[in-house]
Design brief:
By secondary structure, this protein is of the alpha/beta class. Helices cover 40% and strands 17% of the residues.
Length: 431
Amino acid sequence: MTQEASEQARRVGIWLIGARGSISTCVAFGLAGIRTRSLDPIGLCTVRDPLARLPLARLEDLVVGGHDVCARDLWASAAELVKERILTERILEAARAEVEAISSRIRCGTIDVLDRELPGADPAAVALGSTSPREQIAKIAGDLAEFRAKEALDSVVVVNLASTEAARPEQAEWARLQRLEAALDEGRSQPASILYAYAAISEGCAYVNFTPSLGSAIPALRELAQRQGIPHCGSDGKTGETLVKTVLAPMFSARNLRVLAWQGYNMLGNRDGEILTDAAHRAAKLKNKDEALRSILRDEELHSHVGIDFVPSLKDWKTAWDFVHFEGFLGTRMSLQFTWSGSDSALAAPLVLDLVRLADFSLQRGERGEMAHTSSFFKAPIAGGGHDFRMQFQGLLDYAEKHLATPSPAATEAPKTRSRTGGGLRRPSEA
């Protein structure tokens, strides 16, 4: 940590949606392990130069809370990860006091209207999800305001880590903020991810969507973020098979090798995998997994397919097998196969911490709207652009170097002093 960074010590809140899930559990215990020096920050991009030279929030100053729609204890999630050799008893013991504090900051969230019949849902979450959209937003916003005040936080970053929502047809009110406001006033049901994002942005919190769900990606909420001066990013964290695709596919393109077919098959066994057994949820997930490949190779004749199956015994260990059939000189047909086997949660957790630090940095500098420099973290970056991982990551490095060369002036209005009304949220149109 540089001297400049150490002088910027600030208390930053991380509010996790899906706070008792596997990724959130790895975030909580991993952060505690780093603080007690029982873990190295492996997997974090922000601890390496040039990002490490930015005055980012210190890992020691991050405070975790969140929403969840299941009633199980955070320790139950941790116990499952110990059985799966992702967490160790040593880490659990070292993190005990801190994780107890995190557990006390988890509040009941709202459940999506299409997920109320799912097993394990907290009746309180189902009850909240049955109220009007405005009431749900007010509850979420109130919890965020309480978190900020009780923990004396300088800023808050909300991160969506909930299970994938079911795919929905595009709604007319998503196109403009004014239309969305009217729909909320009329009590028209909205996906939970949109309600969380609306509440977060309206409360002055930076927002990160690590899921394939809509969140802040709809035009109405992108408009809201611009109006409120809030940075946000997403969607759908890139941790495994798609990450490899966005590294390998540019190689075939650069060498002018024609990819004839790219067939992928995924097996996973955690709750996210169980959710994806439903066709509507699976459709939302698969949309982003194929888009990156087609964007890079730009061949209309390419045969590309991704399959996902739920294999309960795998738990948090995801296995992906890919077969690439390609044509080279003289019309010679060849193939490449690879197998990726890894813990989705252990791969995702450090990226969440990176994104929190980067989102908070943008918030403090008065940056607003889509954080284009974070595109390398996502399968479907909402700011658009290409999917070539090397080029995406270079964009992040260029962003860091630019700020190091010409430090941004302090924002004229600190986010924590913006007008709020807690649970009785004031609409942006009335601000």
